[in-house]
Amino acid sequence: MGIHRNPLSGETYESLGREIMESYIANLSSHQEDRKLMLHNWHISEEDSGAEEYKLGHGIVTGHQRLSDSVRMHTSDVRGIEIDEVEGELILTTRNSVYHCPLSDCNFDRQDQYPGIIPEYEKLKQTYKDTVVRPSVEPGKVLLVLSNFCEYYFHSLCYVPAGSENGVPLSYKASPHIGMFQDSFLIRTDGWKIDLRYFPHYQNVEFYGESTDGCPWYIENTGDAVLFAKTSVGTIRLAPGERKEVQRENTEENPPMLPRGDLYPAGIIK
Fold first, then answer.
1. What percent of the chain has pLDDT above 70?
2. If we measure between CA atoms, which residue out of 219, 266, 269 comes closest to residue 245?
3. Exposed e or buried b for every residue in 122-153, given b needs 16+ CB within 10 A?
4. Burial (Cβ within 10 Å: 0-12, 13-18, ≥19) of residue 158
5. What is the pTM (predicted TM-score) of this model?
6. pLDDT per residue over 61-112, tens digit each?
7. Longest dimension (CA), the chain
């Protein structure tokens, strides 16, 4: 949970922990009932233990009962593979679970190592590779895209400086900074015109750097779960598919108590 207690306020760890759990139930888990179990940026490998051959699905999971969204994992032994082109999904069945894998989100570079696993793989590759469209924004504005199906919640950044001759978004670098106690995520464009930094927590991010070249900036949630962004102007709630400008008018009047622990605790993931 990453509880930070102010001893002068008289708060107890018990009361703070209860507030965080109640906040999760009220604000963050209301979407759970209708969610699919999904793998994103996925591929299927063929493994050989020496005694037998088996297949594993790999990817970033969402909608899992025991794993947090945005965790990269592999499945147990794959029992069935089915293509549903109407839904644009590959359906991967294991002994206990059914995973929905968007065809447009296949990691084709990795799947190329195991092309025979997926029926009509070359046809699907020609149809779906590089078909994901990244969200964009008008020149002179900055758009940060977050999603619960991306590692560290980072999906993409779009910034075209006002008056740009070619209208091409600036290239950027995005990478985690692995700290001893708390990881953070850094996004910066060439020349450091844009420099955004945040701590990723469970279903929320906390910004500690917001340099946007003097331009207004927006945050968009392309995932399927509510995300909160703690910014310099306040806490912004982003429903799935929602985009909001980072300004005080878009902040929560009574923000919920949100977890502040590390998204990928060192003792569990790393």
1. 89
2. 219
3. eebbeebeeeeeeeebeeebbbbbbbbbbbbb
4. buried
5. 0.82
6. 998 888 878 889 999 999 999 999 999 999 999 999 999 999 999 999 999 9
7. 65
What three-state secondary structure class fits 106? strand
Closest CA to 239 of 160, 148, 156, 110: 148
Per-residue tokens: 169? 């978004």
Q: Are strands 154-159 and 89-94 parallel, antiparallel or unpaired?
A: unpaired
Q: Report helix, strand and coil shares of the chain as percent, to nearest 5.
A: 20, 40, 45
C-alpha pair distances (Å), 79 with each of 53, 97, 99, 108? 12, 10, 11, 21
Which candidate, 103, 104, 101, 46, places its Cα nearest to that of 77?
Answer: 46
Residue 48, pLDDT score:
86
* CB count in 10 Å sphere of residue 56: 17
**Whether residue 269 has pLDDT greater than 50:** no
Higher pLDDT, 7 or 146: 146
Name the helix (H) or strand (E) containing 20: helix 13-23
H helix runs in 95-211, sequence order: 108-111, 121-128
